[in-house]
Design a protein that fits this description.
The chain is mainly α and about 170 residues long. The chain has helices spanning about 5-25, 35-45, 55-70, 80-85, 90-105, 115-125, 130-140, 150-165, 170-174, and strands spanning about 30, 75-80, 115, 150.
Length: about 170
């Protein structure tokens, strides 16, 4: 293994541990089905959407798909080792991107594919990040200074972080 690969692997492991801890709502070192799906509940509540809203239905559908993919043994819990072995670029591209994108869409009040700082902070605090870290992550992603973070940039930054690549948002968010 080259030094670059070792560094990337170490960076990915650290990033995944931080993401895992954020998803572990009760801090018991296991992500349960409830922990994972309660993220959707918090985002729905924060956005003030109703259960019959098509964006809520989509978020719940994508969340259940993601949980089903992550919880391969069907025991309704996920240890860090299980998560670390599962997550990666392919899983992000084919599973996580859709679940995370649907949560982004929930708080995108005008549906333009971009969040302002208040919407971004609402989303990230609903997902268990501190408001201060969420604000810093927004600033890191708003590279053109227009006060908006686009969906694609948001998802690309999360993907980069979990695979161990440079992610200014990831570095300040978790």
């Amino acid at each position: 293994m080259s030094p670059t690969t070792e560094t990337t692997t170490a960076a990915a492991t650290v990033a995944r541990a931080r993401v895992f801890a954020m998803m572990d709502a009760d801090g018991d070192k296991v992500i349960t089905r409830h922990d994972y799906l309660s993220r959707i509940d918090r985002a729905v509540s924060a956005a003030g959407r109703t259960e019959d809203d098509p964006l809520v239905v989509a978020a719940r559908t994508e969340g259940l798909k993601a949980w089903g993919a992550m919880d391969a043994n069907g025991d309704d819990k996920l240890t860090f080792d299980e998560y670390d072995a599962w997550v990666g670029a392919d899983k992000f591209d084919n599973v996580c991107r859709f679940a995370l994108g649907s949560l982004f869409d929930l708080v995108d009040a005008d549906g333009d594919g971009a969040l302002d700082k208040a919407e971004f902070t609402m989303l990230r605090t609903a997902l268990n990040n501190s408001a201060e870290n969420a604000a810093a992550a927004f600033d890191a992603l708003d590279t053109d200074g227009d006060g908006r973070v686009r969906r694609d940039a948001y998802l690309a930054s999360i993907r980069a972080y979990i695979v161990g690549d440079s992610s200014p948002m990831g570095e300040v968010l978790y």
